[in-house]
Design a protein that fits this description.
Layout: H1 2-22, H2 32-63, H3 69-103
Length: 105
């Protein structure tokens, strides 16, 4: 099961790069910067979507905990990890945008 999930995850993460390489944007050649920017955007949105799913899963775990301290702790950990992932995603996106502005791309 882990191999299937790993291969599906890898396929979803590589899909934007493959699609960007095949699209004709009307400008002739597609630059490496544009493909990387598209891949970064896709990864950002996938991470945001995954964090929302984890928060929903944590809410469900809270609701079904029934007072079990282990399940409550597990749900709090889910929320903490999702929030950390969101902060890292936004900081990484801001860092990439800042670097592109600095180098003038």
């Amino acid at each position: 099961m882990k191999k299937i999930l790993a291969s599906l995850t890898l396929g979803v993460l590589l899909l934007p790069i493959a699609v960007s390489a095949q699209l004709d944007w009307g400008e002739g050649q597609i630059g490496v910067e544009r493909v990387l920017n598209n891949a970064i955007n896709w990864l950002f949105y996938i991470l945001i979507f995954a964090a929302v799913i984890v928060i929903i899963l944590a809410a469900y775990t809270f609701l079904t905990a029934g007072g079990d301290p282990d399940k409550v702790k597990k749900a709090r950990d889910y929320i903490l990890y999702a929030l950390i992932a969101l902060v890292v995603a936004f900081l990484a996106r801001a860092l990439v945008d800042w670097l592109l502005e600095v180098i003038g791309a």
